[in-house]
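Complex 507.
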Amino acid sequence: MKQASHTLTAPAAVIVIFGAAGDLTKRKLLPALFNLASQKLLSSKVAMVGIDRVEMDSEAYRQNLNQEISSFVGKGFDQKLWDANVGRAYYMSGDFRNAESYKQLKEFLLEVDREQEAPGNYLFYLATPPSFFGVIATELGKAGLSQESDGQWRRIIIEKPFGRDLESARELNATLHRSFAEHQIYRIDHYLGKETVQNIMAYRFSNGTVEPIWNHRYIDNVQITVVESLGVEDRASYYEEAGALRDMIVNHLLAVLSVVGMEPPNSFSADAIRDEQIKVLRAIQPFDPQRVLSDAVRGQYGGGRMGKGDDVCAYRDEPGIAEDSPSETFVALKLMIDSWRWAGVPFYLRTGKRMPGRYSEVVIQYKHAPNMMFRGALERRKDIGSNQLVLRIQPNEGISMEFNAKVPGTAFNVSQVRMDFDYDDYFDESNTASGYETLIYDCLCGDATLFKRADNIEVCWELVQPILDVWKALPPRSFPNYASGSWGPEAADELLARDGNDWRVAK
Ligand code: BG6
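Predicted structure with 6-O-phosphono-beta-D-glucopyranose bound:
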């Protein structure tokens, strides 16, 4: 099978990771860098500088990495490749709030450039708690580390969460803009780095038969589900502050919606694509308090059994969680988009923890055929079913279409069948990528397509702000309202049942 791929080596640069001792660096960033190196997508002059509070020199840091890296990279780890590359990992201990650390960093980077014969391009990756985002950007600016000159670029990657409400997101954007220009800022949403999310664009815009029926004339509703079986794990203090609306909806689910709902861009350039995404986000009908009550459902998991497996405890019984915690671990929303394409088509979004499995998928529910001519079919219209296109983001990445076929035999019966495309069947690359590979590679290449612009972030917060306000003013009275291992609170089913719809049960 012929694959069109980009295999250009990314330009040389020093990647400076703030929060080098943290979980994200170990679990996602270093394995992603390793995977990029093994695919020969990194220049041999790319170096990495980890910076954190822990006192240690580069040698000790390398030894730590040597011990841990194979377990984090997992499948596909190649010791020889690692040994050949580990010499390009450096470490500097520093205090993110102390201006002195940034002066030292500047000197340190010059040394690394000299040692690696690197051209002086710097990518600053903020893998830190969000309270450091503003201060690190400001101090980098003050130290002159954000200034681009003589063809040397400076870029900054900001992790989520980007703000905790509209006001703080606006403030953070303003703070970043005081030190970095918008073209230097790369706001991560790792969902945009996922293969299947990008494939939605390929599917829509490189196939002549898809777009003509991608609209309100043929589509009844769209469902975007991102659920997982995990609970809060060891992130109690973050999650108590965040909840599912901030953790998942305002970023990942709206990002997926923008890819599904956007108009075809005029080119594949970052701004052409991002302009179309923001247009569809802006067209979502805003929530007023009344609509929050009718079209936004929140839930929190109680105890229960995960499949045939273990009994698990309620969210409120997890370590570090308040016994009367109001944090939601489940959200379902009904959104309407005021555009020519999507008039009258509900977009249902759902995310939750402690669900029966880990499924991320987009379901395009097509309308019924206009005339059911088959004998007796009118009464069985619901059974006959309409076409359903499922874009599976994870697991088992792929696309399937359900349609009706005649059941063999003398009687004329119709039944739903399924046509399936599995990534694994067509593409031989064993895809161990988390999404971070693409995002780091794109940032090194200066391609911002899969990153969020300031306006996108603010529009998403504008949309969810009324929900945050109403939920804060009216603390939940029925939490916990769904059992672990179930599909969430009944109200989430009722949200669709009111429109004569139901959630697709992921298979
Ligand atoms: C993160 C959230 O952004 O995304 C987590 O903070 C969630 O709560 C995770 O588990 C889901 O990502 P993925 O790639 O595992 O679907």
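The two ends are 27 Å apart (CA to CA).
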